[in-house]
UniProtKB/TrEMBL annotation:
Keywords: Methyltransferase, RNA-binding, S-adenosyl-L-methionine, Transferase. Residues 1-28 are annotated as: Disordered. PROSITE patterns: SAM_MT_RSMB_NOP (PS51686). SUPFAM superfamilies: NusB-like (SSF48013), S-adenosyl-L-methionine-dependent methyltransferases (SSF53335). This is Methyltransferase domain-containing protein. Residues 153-444 form the SAM-dependent MTase RsmB/NOP-type domain. Coiled coil: none annotated. Residues 9-18 have a biased composition (Low complexity). S-adenosyl-L-methionine binds at C263, A264, A265, P266, G267, G268, K269, D284, D324. The lineage of its organism: Bacteria, Pseudomonadati, Pseudomonadota, Alphaproteobacteria, Rhodobacterales. It comes from Pseudooceanicola albus. GO terms for molecular function: RNA binding; RNA methyltransferase activity. One of its GO terms (biological process) is regulation of DNA-templated transcription. The active site is at C377 (nucleophile).
Length: 444
């Protein structure tokens, strides 16, 4: 029988570093508009890929952060914006004008002074070569929205996920749980930190005015400027969702162990493994994303061997392997509200194929008695539970180590039939939720 064809790696294209742009930098609102136009455009892009776009090169850090937030929050509330606007639009204007209206609607619903918001929106449209004539319409609509939005916004339902994602999730969970996911996505995410020294987590929670979560992460309600927080410069902690910090806790790296982090960038998990004193090799296909890993290693003073390359071609023998495989990232919508709009699910089939090839390759690199943690930040069981069930069928000597799940803060209700952990954004409702994730510990 011919060997099965390996699916193409969806994000295998090398990413070039952005070129500096000498044109005048856009305002925060102008940049947010460009971001929305790109996320919702014909060739949709993710916000994360736009943060260092050439057109944003001259922007001050604070403006850049404001633009990102404005774009992300408008996308999070897009359905609500459109519902408010629909009452006042007989016909949908072209996308750039619609996006000006959407951003302004979000701002008006969230307490921004109407005068500035409406003026800026009218000016933005009047500068559009082909849509300038719509400035009067924009002015009239936004004056009405300014009156209504603050009181109407909270009455609108949490935005629904698009069908490409809602349908598989309703089939896998339930309609009620789906509504709870959507409410969690609408609520957004607090800022979680992983302390370099887990024994000092409570101290950092106190110093930063946060709370210590049951699994050992520190949660802050208000992020502000992260690089200005105590402990940032000295690398005493790094930003990492509490759910994303769990795979390495299950891996339980030990001093001196030889550990491979197969899909490592931007590196939150590599830092955890290195902080435990293990000898870590971090591999990732994206040289661009690895730059962030290198910067994080420098800031924290932690050590890792960093390799830009294809996980499927990596060779060696390791005591333990972490495989945080490329996936649909549908568990991270609280923090990436652009994802449901910029994606359409077309690449999920390829990703599922790649994940199973990566599991098999990772298993071939394990020392006898070694352990593999497979995880994905996805809500889709095909990228989680099903991968493990199928791996167990392909490898009769493989078993799932359930004892690895006996860790502080892990609720037994999260444990799945095959022995993995299923985390969803509606968990910890009183603490502010967590990202969706799946993880399992395999040994052979
Ligand atoms: C979920 S992210 C990893 C997140 C990372 N473990 C962390 O904690 O920061 C998946 C990563 O897989 C990388 N990737 C995708 N295909 C790959 C391949 N064939 N070989 C190595 N890395 C790959 C992507 O560049 C991406 O950085």
């Amino acid at each position: 029988m011919p060997a099965p064809r390996r699916p193409r790696t969806p994000n295998a294209r090398p990413q070039a570093a952005p070129k500096a742009d000498t044109r005048r930098a856009p305002s925060a609102r102008g940049a947010a508009l460009r971001m929305l136009n790109e996320v919702l455009g014909e060739e949709p892009r993710l916000l994360a890929d736009l943060s260092d776009a050439p057109w944003a090169a001259g922007m001050a850090g604070a403006d850049r952060a404001r633009a990102q937030r404005l774009a992300a929050e408008t996308l999070r509330g897009l359905e609500r914006c459109d519902r408010l606007l629909a009452k006042h639009l007989k016909k949908l204007p072209p996308l750039p004008v619609r996006n000006v209206l959407r951003i302004a609607t979000w701002e008006l619903a969230h307490g921004e002074a109407a005068h500035g918001v409406v003026n800026d929106a009218v000016n933005a449209v009047s500068r559009m070569p082909r849509q300038g004539h719509l400035k009067g319409l924009v002015n009239a609509v936004l004056r009405k929205i300014a009156d209504e939005a603050p009181s109407e916004w909270p009455k609108l339902r949490a935005p629904r996920l698009p069908d490409w994602l809602r349908e598989p999730l309703v089939a896998a969970y339930s309609s009620a749980q789906m509504l709870a996911f959507e409410a969690a996505h609408a609520a957004g995410a607090p800022l979680d930190l992983t302390p370099r020294d887990p024994a000092q987590a409570a101290d950092w929670a106190e110093k930063l005015g946060g709370v210590l979560l049951p699994t050992g992460s520190v949660r802050l309600a208000e992020a502000g400027q992260i690089s200005a927080l105590p402990g940032y410069e000295e690398g005493a902690w790094w930003v990492q969702d509490a759910a994303a910090a769990l795979p390495v806790k299950l891996l339980a790296p030990k001093q001196g162990e030889k550990i491979l982090d197969l899909c490592a960038a931007p590196g939150g998990k590599t830092l955890q493994v290195a902080a435990a004193g293990a000898e870590v090799t971090a591999v990732d296909l994206s040289a661009h994303r690895l730059k962030r890993l290198e910067a994080n290693l420098k800031r924290t003073g932690l050590k890792a061997t960093v390799i830009a390359g294809d996980a499927m071609e990596h060779e060696g023998r390791y005591d333990a392997i972490l495989l945080d495989a490329p996936c649909s990232a549908t568990g991270t919508i609280r923090r990436h509200p652009d994802l449901p709009h910029a994606r359409d699910g077309a690449e999920i089939g390829d990703l599922i194929g790649l994940q199973s090839f990566m599991i098999d390759h990772a298993l071939s690199l394990l020392n006898p008695g070694g352990r593999l943690v497979f995880c994905t930040c996805s809500l889709i069981p095909d990228e989680g539970e099903c991968q493990i069930e199928e791996a167990l069928e392909r490898h009769p000597d493989l078993r799932v180590d359930r004892s690895a799940l006996e860790r502080p803060g892990i609720d037994p209700a999260w444990i799945t039939e095959e022995g993995g952990l299923r985390l969803t954004p509606d968990l910890w409702p009183d603490l502010g939720g967590m990202d969706g994730f799946y993880m399992a510990v395999l040994t052979r």
